[in-house]
Design brief:
The chain has 156 residues and is mainly beta. It has one domain. 19% of the residues are buried.
């Protein structure tokens, strides 16, 4: 579970261990998607009146294409997450690293902030391997499979 009723958080810290599915509604078109659910662990606790703090981590694998040869690639993603949530009327609510409480201050949803953390950590330009040769500029052949039939002069 990644959404919490504020009233339950006032009773004390909560251990978080849950998954954010790759097909969750939080993901937007164009996002670097996880291959499967992202595993989230951590602790959510009060941090003063109308403020909450999440400290934890997320792990998963991002789906993408090699930036050189366009082969499908899965890149591991692991990140620490330290998130602050506050009421909309909090004096620091406008800070870029402070997340708003949802549902009129009755719910705290970790999913949007975890999505943001994921996108900051996931590789935008992954490689299938460090020595990837890419595609021929002339014929488009995958040079990892061997040389193409283009003359050396044509490929430069």
């Amino acid at each position: 579970m990644l959404s919490f009723a504020i009233r339950t958080l006032s009773e004390g810290a909560v251990k978080v261990e849950s998954d954010l599915p790759s097909d969750d509604a939080v993901w937007m078109e164009g996002d670097i998607r996880p291959v499967s659910a992202i595993h989230v662990t951590g602790r959510l606790s009060g941090a003063g009146s109308g403020r909450f703090y999440f400290s934890g981590s997320l792990k998963g694998a991002a789906a993408g294409e090699c930036r050189r040869c366009l082969a499908p690639v899965e890149s591991p993603v692991a990140a620490e997450a330290h998130l602050i949530y506050a009421d909309a009327d909090d004096e620091n609510a406008d800070e870029p690293d402070v997340y708003p409480l949802g549902d009129l201050g009755t719910m705290l949803d970790l999913r949007p902030a975890l999505r943001e953390q994921w996108l900051l950590e996931a590789s935008v330009l992954p490689l299938c391997r460090p020595d990837c040769l890419g595609l021929c500029k002339t014929c488009g052949a995958d040079l990892n499979a061997g040389p193409c039939d283009c003359s050396p002069r044509d490929t430069q």
